[in-house]
Amino acid sequence: xxxxxxxxxxxxxxxxxxxxxxxxxxxxxxxxxxxxxxxxxxxxxxxxxxxxxxxxxxxxxxxxxxxxxxxxxxxxxxxxxxxxxxxxxxxxxxxxxxxxxxxxxxxxxxxxxxxxxxxxxxxxxxxxxxxxx
Length: 133
Prior knowledge:
Blueprint: H1 16-36, E1 59-64, E2 70-72, E3 75-77, H2 79-92, E4 97-102, H3 108-120, E5 125-129
Parallel strand pairs: 1-4, 4-5
Antiparallel strand pairs: 1-2, 2-3
């Protein structure tokens, strides 16, 4: 009787072919990946007036104090007179910018209300000044 050679279990796995396959797949995905990205062109809005983006020629400083006191250009202003003073400032200096400085302990709603008053008075350019620690 012919004897069959005994089958032996392979307990060692060669890692070299596995690394080769992984590197080939990595290379393939690196080459194909950028080709799959389809980025469409974005049409950015264009302003009709180039002066609209320019920095304001004049700026006014509006300070909100600790007790909700308001001063415009160093002079204290009553809350009821603020809108009229700002409207007059915007009329005398079209495109004026207003820099708002506010005490950090005041609620944010006070700043929001002030920004609404600025918008109603015709001031279109505003910024909020902060202090870096």
